[in-house]
């Protein structure tokens, strides 16, 4: 049982609170019962699991080795003010290439989405809608940071998440994909002045392009998009946040595709 917060293993895990150490060590944190159990169900490679005695009395990870720690040590390992009793370190996925464009491909492109909670919620909605991949462009929060992982409710474990240093190049590659599938259309989301979401065709291979929470997509990005759409807002709110907008558009795409399939 680990009882000292000065233990070298505790110090090593605490470093994973910072992005540079996650990248350097190739590891990220899973905090709480739901995330750790989902990783175990998904056969995600866990490097280590730390839990309090009380947690171990109530849970079983199918024979997985769990290191018992004191309550103060668990608090030191976690980024949460009130941790649930278990923290695991998990292996980061390797760099993923752009996925192949298929007839019904649905990608979500996060372009400078800076809030990790928003990013995690977007990943969760994309997973629920059956999206095929998340592309994270420059300036986007770390999808494997603790807050993003928690907000995704484990969906970071289900979807390919592709780090894309050059979205322009990715756009061109996807647009000129296998002509049998017609290439991929990039649908930019703008708070106003675009085509109504409910008049847009969201069937076929598309990438939903989401911009920064405050500034939205750049004028260059909007000019490069194959189509710009806007969520109609008859109420008095000025805008929806990025995660809410993404969910609305994703499930309109789901509705259209289900209707097309009959």
UniProtKB/TrEMBL annotation:
The keyword Disulfide bond does not apply. Keywords: Methyltransferase, Transferase. Residues 29-96 form the RNA 2-O ribose methyltransferase substrate binding domain. GO terms for biological process: methylation; RNA processing. One of its GO terms (cellular component) is cytoplasm. GO terms for molecular function: RNA binding; RNA methyltransferase activity. Belongs to the class IV-like SAM-binding methyltransferase superfamily. RNA methyltransferase TrmH family. This is RNA methyltransferase.
């Amino acid at each position: 049982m680990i009882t000292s917060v000065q233990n070298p293993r505790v110090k090593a895990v605490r470093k994973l609170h910072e992005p540079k150490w996650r990248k350097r060590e190739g590891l990220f944190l899973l905090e709480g019962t739901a995330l750790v159990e989902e990783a175990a169900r998904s056969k995600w490679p866990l490097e280590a699991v730390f839990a309090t005695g009380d947690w171990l009395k109530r849970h079983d990870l199918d024979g997985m080795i769990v290191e018992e720690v004191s309550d103060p040590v668990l608090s030191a390992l976690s980024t949460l003010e009130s941790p649930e009793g278990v923290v695991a370190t998990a292996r980061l996925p390797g760099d993923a290439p752009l996925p192949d464009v298929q007839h019904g491909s649905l990608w979500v492109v996060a372009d400078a989405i800076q809030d990790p909670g928003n990013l995690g919620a977007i990943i969760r909605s994309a997973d629920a809608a059956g999206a095929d991949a998340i592309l994270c462009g420059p300036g986007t929060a770390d999808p494997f940071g603790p807050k993003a992982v928690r907000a995704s409710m484990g969906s970071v474990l289900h979807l390919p998440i592709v780090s894309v240093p050059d979205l322009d190049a990715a756009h061109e590659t996807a647009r000129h994909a296998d002509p049998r599938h017609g290439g991929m259309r990039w649908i930019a989301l703008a708070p106003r002045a675009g085509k109504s979401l409910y008049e847009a065709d969201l069937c076929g291979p598309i990438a939903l392009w989401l911009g920064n929470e405050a500034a939205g997509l750049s004028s260059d990005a909007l000019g490069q998009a194959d189509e710009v759409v806007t969520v109609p807002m008859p109420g008095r709110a000025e805008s929806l946040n990025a995660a809410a907008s993404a969910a609305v558009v994703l499930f309109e795409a789901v509705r259209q595709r289900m209707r097309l399939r009959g």
